[in-house]
Structure prediction request, 311 residues.
Amino acid sequence: MQISAQIVTYTLKRPFTISRGSRTQAEVIQVTIEKNGKKGLGECSPTGRYGESFDSVLAQIDSVKGKAFDRSQLKTLLPAGAARNALDCALWDLETENFPDGFSLPARIQTAMTVSIATPQEMADEAKAYVEQGATLIKVKLNGDEVFERLSAVRAAAPDTLLIVDANEAWGNLDIEATIQQIAPLNIAMVEQPLPAAEDEALRQISSPIPLCADESCHTADDVESLAGKYQMVNIKLDKTGGLTAAFELEQAARAKGMQVMVGCMLGSSIAMRAALPVAATAVLVDLDGAFLISDDIQGGLHYQNGHIVL
Prediction:
């Protein structure tokens, strides 16, 4: 088994801004595993929020070169995170015939289209453009400023579209319950990670008319027990779980606790988005527009149409 890795940079169609900063490019690491004359490809996005860098992730990948392992053994070699994700997905790519019995993908999967942080009018304009392209689900990125104003502008521009909100831990200085009550009349379907992961115990004490989803607070199946009672949904991202193998485990653990499942992504190409489709196929919410947001996706990438991934 031969393993190679390279850094690849994609250009975003427009600046992408969340509560932690703004980007104009998406840098990823692509991994190729060659085995028995076949090649498998995986992609990951190192995330500083989780203590990762490109150097640290490449070092983890280098540490398993020359070793023979399957997906189960890989879990003992590397911790959950970007490096294991790229390797795990490359192994899945080598053995796609081994997906669970009865597994199949639908012809179309609804995906969120993301409106990043800007002025209320700019966010409304971006939402309107998505609606004109046929989007039926819009994800609104927010920080702690102008929460109601920004959401109101987006809702006015997309009156009939399902809206979900992602605060990326930025509401720690707000009255969280009052903020949620204020935006509830805007018909928001879900609020994702309103408080910093280290502070989300406070969510047990609030009454929210809007379902709450754990993102930064949820990485693997081991986290689910502590999330119950604070959140009603978990956002599964392969870069956090360490690949599709562990993503299936997180999905099962969440459902066993009565929690709903969302599937999300980091910025990246169709390689990364496609790897998450097996979990997205049965998720209540899907946010796999990462490849749609870049201007130079891979050849033969996913086809986005009318707010859906058409398979």
Notes: The chain has a mean pLDDT of 96. The first strand starts at residue 2 and ends at 18. The radius of gyration is 19 Å.
